Fold:
Amino acid sequence: QEHLVESGGGLVQAGGSLRLTCAASGFDFTNYVMRWYRQVPGKERELVASIGNDGAIPDYLPSVKGRFTISRGDAKNILYLQMDSLKPEDTARYYCNFLNHWGQGTQVTVSS
Structure:
């Protein structure tokens, strides 16, 4: 059974950094495009970044481009999101995704 577990969230000051991790199991990780989404209560979930399994250049939400970096460790079935120069508007719950499968999310809070 497919399983995604996010970790690495927390409270950080504006300008700081966090690295999110998504541990994947129960499926062939190397076969799928992997994505990070985020959601603020009362708002729709938005796509933050995606990375293919074919070496293509990752895609980013314009507001995070140049600050966030998505990467994958296929040997360990792990998806990463390096977040630098964090802003208060990045505060959200961040979710790992492939197809219609989701993790439980990890909370990121950026204080001003």
Notes: DSSP finds no helices and eleven strands in the chain. The chain has a mean pLDDT of 96. The two ends are 40 Å apart (CA to CA).
